[in-house]
């Protein structure tokens, strides 16, 4: 291909300029999240060959379905491009493994070839966005990133292009911890069980950014562990993306495509869908009957006690491993608000040792029970961001480190940071409460509910 792009795999974008130049988040084989996830479709030989010819590899963030070490081992002599994140964990870890890593400057165009340039936007959540200019057409690769204050900047750039494509996570919502239980051990149906038409969300998001085309992206996975395969009921099939899609300004394209700008052609790619059978967790080293060893239990205590925000937000965190409880107490005489996680020893110990607790949450084989008042958002905003984003990835655990962490992102983009904080601490909680109240009064598929929801999103776009 002389000039254009392809999409394949989970969140893999391949950009061509007289040959392959750039690939994003390549994941060609293997599993993620302690074996829980695998690719929903095979990566064809043609796209595999193109990936391996790319001199540049961009990595959006540290989740293993985006940063696949099995795939990166096949790309050892390439230049890895990463966002300029506070803490620099991905940069330092990859350099420590011998990779050539280049940190992209914030919001500055970098030329990769005569007709391809890129602009990277890191955010406070340790996610990043990549804008790719391919011969005067704009590709907006959001992967998993939600607007953390950079939305207005992206919309401004989109307005400079006549032809623009949005590639973003979409689906029913299984790509997070949804394995919640009541205190009497009954599974709580996740939000994804509502099966809200994905096309409606896609159309709203595309119109919010002002793009001309939308490509489903960053959600092409299947569950394969026997203890997480239950979540397969909430994954999104290729046919689901078009459900409810209606837009006068945007066209929905297939998830796997070859867009040739020289020939002005869009061709679907038809990879083989993977047929899976549940795999015993023991194949991935997890025996639910194993107990934590003494040093592992000690490491568990140290890991969570080092995250100072948890002392302000929770009374305890309990881990049930092999039927034995390990309690991290933040307030010895107060046990009103806390979390119980039930997990197998090997994955838990590994997540603590390598500081990748989010991999346990997203794998959805670990069971989670909330005690006390948490609200509809569950582990947000007091647990997941502070543990997985700020502490693990940003390496900010103490109050002073957090002040420095937030201060750095505030300095880089004061107005965007303010919007992000308003969104996180004011708008999202209010949105969740209002939506739950509305659902209790009217059906979620009613015209009134849809109108109220669209009104909210229009107002949100004006404010943020």
Itemize the secondary structure elements and their pairings.
Elements: E1 3-8, E2 12-17, E3 20-24, E4 31-32, E5 37-39, H1 45-53, E6 56-59, H2 69-72, E7 79-82, H3 89-96, E8 100-103, E9 110-113, E10 116-122, E11 128-134, E12 137-143, H4 151-158, E13 164-169, E14 180-181, H5 198-209, E15 213-217, E16 221-223, E17 251-252, E18 257-260, E19 265-268, H6 294-305, H7 309-313, E20 316-321, E21 324-329, E22 338-342, H8 345-353, H9 357-363, E23 367-371, H10 384-393, H11 399-412, H12 414-441, H13 447-463
Parallel strand pairs: 3-6, 6-7, 7-8, 12-13, 13-15, 14-23, 15-17, 20-22
Antiparallel strand pairs: 1-2, 1-18, 2-3, 4-5, 5-16, 9-10, 10-11, 11-12, 18-19, 20-21, 22-23
CATH topology of the largest domain: Metallo-beta-lactamase, Chain A
Please identify, by name, the CATH architecture of the largest domain.
4-Layer Sandwich
Structural class: alpha/beta
Overall tally of structural domains? 3
Q: What would CATH call the class of the largest domain?
A: Alpha Beta
Write down the Rg.
22 Å
User: Unreliable runs, pLDDT <50, ≥5 residues?
Assistant: none
Shape: globular
Percent in helix: 25-40%
**Termini separation (Å)?**
39 Å
Give the neighbour order of strands across the main sheet: 8-7-6-3-2-1-18-19
